[in-house]
Design goal:
Helix content: 25-40%
Structural class: alpha+beta
Number of strands: 16
Oligomer: single chain
Radius of gyration: 21 Å
Number of helices: 12
Number of domains: 3
Bound molecules: flavin-adenine dinucleotide
Strand order of the largest sheet: 13-10-12-11-15-16-14
Order of helices and strands: EHEHEEEEHHHEEHEEHEEHEEHEEHHH
Shape: globular
Distance between the termini: 35 Å
Length: 447
């Protein structure tokens, strides 16, 4: 090992285990700060020899599951990032966060398929699908991975492509951490120097108008347009701009990859609804893409939940508003509806395990903030909202938005299609028969 190996009694143990989501404190038997692929191999072999589970920690946004008793591999030192302008590709190591890739790619007029948050790692986000503001035009981030360097349960480092190991290549792109520790990925980049977009914040009283218009408007917007609406109730903290503090606001997020004049025409019906608090939609460089959602970058204790909807009729919007709108005594800091469809609904050129595509038109994402004693009440409220939307739901879930309580195989299985799941279990049996990688969203090996 060249990186640090820390036991619970060692100084630096807690620091190494820092997460973004503060609802979980990791307590592995040992934490390994990997400096390179050889360190990852050594850690996996050590765990396999002792039959200990392996956990992986990137930026800790999806770390809501306890890693007690595991060998935890921290990837934050794996920060290699190489962009090849001529082939429009990037090799991205496991500790690289989207903010770095956005900055580097933006300098040469290229873009990746990032999500709303710039602080998640590119690798973890992409392994879980990767749903972002260019999604309707270009699909999931996992659809544009061309190779993965992964340490599998046998301790081997493999470079996995569509030709070298097609089954593992299929399973890794959408199967998240179940098949090994990914050291680096190679991805396609896109010539997107800029776009028309940003966010408009409306006062909470306009939530109903904004959401009902969003429902009608999404019926025929072109694939170049990706959009969502978040009902936000932000705390009165210094990082929140004063006009948005401690009040419900409806936040429309827009990214349009076409002529800006056409983008402006498409957004006009929203602007006609009433006076916004802030209108920050306009022409933007790709380097500013994180401003579309403006996700908080500092750690928070978040309890999250979600649902996939096949349709969004007026009744569904009314139910959403009943529990998350201006008249609801809601504990949610964010209740969001994202428009899917377009390329997100189609299988990619080389199929992968990202599922629940064609039947799904909207993604619901809920977040409540609070300490562990609030967990039951906050999850209970989120579940009420998910249950209220059940008539329009597909009953499935989007993997990257599944958190604590979803880690058990029965719940986790909802992230994959009924066809994909048995295939994933079979591939898991071949590559990880002892289920070493079982800490998060576990797919048990086939018998
Ligand atoms: C504020 C916020 C906004 C978000 N927005 C979006 C969004 O717009 N679109 C979207 O798709 N998702 C979004 N997510 C979800 C996010 O992409 C996932 O939770 C992602 O896994 C977080 O990355 P991370 O580096 O923080 O992962 P971590 O929390 O560090 O790891 C989560 C899990 O990923 C797996 N993993 C991590 N690294 C590796 C590796 N190197 N090899 C194998 N497995 C690994 C492990 O199973 C691990 O338990 C958001 C989350 C938050 C909190």
């Amino acid at each position: 090992m060249t990186g640090p190996v820390l036991l619970p009694e060692d100084g630096g143990y807690a620091e190494e285990l820092r997460t973004y989501n503060l609802t979980v404190v990791h307590t592995p038997a040992v934490v390994v700060g990997a400096m390179n692929a050889a360190d990852v191999r050594a850690a996996v072999r050590f765990a396999a020899a002792r039959e200990l589970p392996v956990a992986v920690l990137g930026a800790g946004h999806g770390s809501s599951v306890s890693s007690a008793g595991s060998v935890l591999i921290s990837t934050r030192r794996l920060t290699g990032l190489a962009i090849d302008e001529s082939t429009r590709t990037a090799r991205v190591e496991a500790g690289v966060r989207w903010a770095d890739l956005i900055e580097q790619a933006g300098k040469v007029g290229l873009a990746g398929l990032n999500g709303s948050s710039p602080t998640v790692t590119v690798v973890s986000y992409t392994l879980g699908g990767g749903l972002g503001p260019f999604g309707r035009k270009h699909g999931y981030a996992a659809d544009h991975v061309t190779a993965l360097e992964v340490v599998t349960a046998d301790g081997q480092l493999r470079r996995v492509t569509a030709d070298s190991e097609p089954d593992l290549f299929w399973a890794l792109r959408g199967g998240k951490g179940n098949f090994g520790v990914v050291v680096a990925i190679e991805i396609d980049l896109f010539p997107i120097p800029g776009f028309y977009g940003g966010g408009i914040f409306f006062p909470g009283e306009l939530s109903g108008k904004v959401l009902h218009l969003f429902r009608e408007w999404t019926a025929d917007v072109p694939e170049e347009m990706s959009a969502s609406v978040g009902l936000l109730h932000l705390p009165p903290l210094p990082f929140v701009p004063e006009p948005l503090r401690d009040r419900l606001v409806a936040h429309l997020r827009i990214t349009y990859l076409g002529d800006p004049a056409e983008g402006e025409r498409l957004v006009a019906p929203f602007r006609a609804l009433g006076e916004p608090i802030i209108d920050a939609v306009g022409e933007m460089p790709y380097s500013a893409v994180a401003a579309v959602h403006n996700d908080p970058v500092d750690p928070l204790p978040l309890f999250e939940h979600g649902a996939l909807l096949r349709e969004l009729p007026a009744e569904a919007v009314d139910e959403f508003l009943r529990l998350a709108g201006p008249d609801a005594a809601s504990p949610l800091v964010l209740a969001e509806i994202r428009h899917l469809g377009g390329a997100l609904a189609r299988p990619p050129a080389v199929p992968n395990a990202v599922a629940n595509r064609d039947a799904t038109l909207f993604n619901i994402f809920l977040a409540a903030a609070g300490g562990p004693p609030d967990a039951e009440a906050l999850h209970g409220y989120e579940q009420r909202l998910v249950d209220a939307l059940a008539p329009w739901s597909t009953g499935r879930r989007y993997l990257n938005f599944m958190f604590a309580g979803d880690a058990e195989p029965q719940a986790a299985a909802l992230a994959w299609s009924q066809d994909a799941y048995p295939r994933l279990r079979e591939i898991k049996r071949r590559y990880d028969p002892a289920n070493l990688f079982r800490i998060n969203h576990n797919i048990p090996p086939a018998n």
